[in-house]
Amino acid sequence: MNATGVFPASYAEARARFLAAADAAGAVLESEAHPLKGPNGEALAIDIARIGPAGAPKLFAMTSGTHGIEGYTGSAVQTRLFEDGIAEALPEDTELVFIHAVNPWGFAHGRRVNEDNVDLNRNFATAPFPENPGYEKLHAALVPPEWTEASRAAARAAQGAFVAEHGFAAFVAALSTGQYTRRDGLFYGGQEPTWSNRTMRGIFEREFVPRDAIAFIDIHTGLGERGAGEVLCTEAPGHPVFELGVKWLGSDLRSTSAGTSVSADVRGTMKGALIDRLSADGKPRQTMAISIEYGTVAADRVGAALQADNWLYQHGDPKTPLGREIAREMRAAFLIDEADWAATIHEQAARHVGNALKGLATV
C-alpha cells in the first residue's frame, strides 16, 4: 500500500518508528494494550511517551490516530518532533506527553472508525444523545447492501436531492456532525464509551487534570485544501480556551462552533470532553486545546472513500480485490504519500508546536 516510502506502510511500522524515536530522545514509555489484534496478529496499543519532569505544573501534549487511518500523519509528526530535538526546546517546568494511536485498531486496519464502527470523535457525548434527523433521511442511500454503480449513483442522487431541498450546510451537518441510532452507518457515535474513550479518560485524569497550564494538540487529516493545516478549536471566540489559542498560535485559529472552520460543529469530541473535565473541578488553569486538520484530496472523494469503507465492513470482504482497492483509496483519501506534502505538514506542525511551547513559557 505504500508507494513512495515517505510514510510507513503499516501501523506496526509507524509504531516501531515512534517508539524508537521516543526512546532515542530519552522518553519514558508505557503502553495501554488494546484487547484485540491487528490484521496480521500484531499487538495494538495506545503508547505514551514522556519527556521532562514528571508531574510538572505545565503540560504539552499531542495525540495521533483518534481517527485510525489519520494516525499515519499524526504518528509521523510526533516521530519527527522527537527526531528534531523537541526535548531540547521544553521549558524547565514543562512535561511533554505524546499519546500515539488513540484508535490503534482503526489505524492498523486502515479505517477511520474503531472495532465497533464507532467514530471516536463522536463517542464522547453522553446521554441523552443528540438527534440527527437529517442523517436518517440519507442513511439508506449511504449504506446500500450492494456496492454497484447503481447503488453509488443512488447515493449521489439522494445527497443531491437533500442539498437541493435543505442546502449544503444542512447536508454537511446531517452527514458529519454525528449520529447515534445507526450502528452500521457513517459517523456513528456509539451508545456507550468505547475502549479508547475509557482509556483516554483515564489518561486525562492522570496526565492533564493535575496541571496548572496545558497546551494540547490533536492531529487530523482529510478536510481542506491539499497540504493546508487548519488550526481549529471547538469553542467559540470569547471562550478562554479559544482566546488563549489565538494568543499563543495567532489569529488564524478557527472555531467549529462559530462556523468558521472547514470542520462541522461536531458533537462528542475527545477534545471537548477534555475541556469539560478540566472546567468541572473549578481549578484555575491556562488551557489551550486545538486540532490541526491537514487537507488531502477533494471532499467528495473523501466522502466516497468513507462510504465504500463502511460498505466493505458491513457487507463486503476486505480480503478480496475490491476490498484491497477500497483500502488503497482510504489511504489515498487521508494521506498524501508524497514528499512535498510531508514537508509542508512537518513545517506547519513544527511552527505550531514552537508557538505553543513559547506560550506555555509565558505562563
Please supply descriptive tags for the structure shown above.
Aminopeptidase, alpha/beta, 45% helix, 363 residues, 2 domains, eight-stranded mixed sheet
Brief characterization of the structure:
By secondary structure, this protein is an alpha/beta fold. It has 2 domains: 11-127 and 194-299 and 326-361, Zn peptidases (Aminopeptidase, 3-Layer(aba) Sandwich), CATH 3.40.630.10; 133-186 and 302-321, no CATH class. The protein contains 13 helices and 8 strands.
What does this molecule look like?
The chain has 363 residues and is α/β, with parallel strands linked by helices. The chain folds into two domains: 11-127 and 194-299 and 326-361, Aminopeptidase (3-Layer(aba) Sandwich), CATH 3.40.630; 133-186 and 302-321, no CATH class. It is built from 13 helices and eight strands. It has helices at residues 11-24, 71-83, 86-89, 104-109, 133-142, 149-166, 168-176, 195-208, 240-249, 270-280, 299-315, 321-334, 339-361, and strands spanning 28-37, 43-51, 58-63, 94-100, 213-226, 229-233, 254-255, 286-295. The chain has an eight-stranded mixed beta sheet, sandwiched between helices. It is globular, with a radius of gyration of 20 Å. The N and C termini lie far apart (45 Å). 48% of the residues are buried. The model has no long low-confidence stretch (mean pLDDT 95).
